Amino acid sequence: MSPDLAARLEALGQQIGATWMVGFENFDGGHPFIEVSEGPTYRLVAYERGQRLFAKETRELDEILYWALYEVTWTMAYGWAVRHPVEGEEQRFTAFRRQEELLGTLDPRWASRARASRPS
């Protein structure tokens, strides 16, 4: 675990009122977690029933922060969309907008980046 990375994640999570944060332990069940190795090299990884679902690797601190907060804000945004349905709109689009708001609170570039990757 990286104490500096953990502190940054915690501070960003508090800034948006996150009730959970991507951590540094594998809890399986598809929950993403971060591995840090020499360099440092950061990996966002998730396993389900012992099978790796995905793994992304970077040497950039900002990139691992974005990936982790993207996961956290998606969970928050989808929960919010379920509780605040918009008539005539698919929940995922309500969630996309909410996620962009949350990410924009942390870094406007992150909101733009998420928006650019959305289906229209």
UniProtKB/TrEMBL annotation:
One Pfam family linked to the record: Imm63
Residue ranges constituting the Immunity protein domain according to the UniProt record: 41-116
InterPro entries noted in UniProt: Imm63 (IPR028952)
Record protein name field: Immunity protein 63 domain-containing protein
Lineage, opening ranks: Bacteria, Bacillati, Actinomycetota, Actinomycetes, Pseudonocardiales
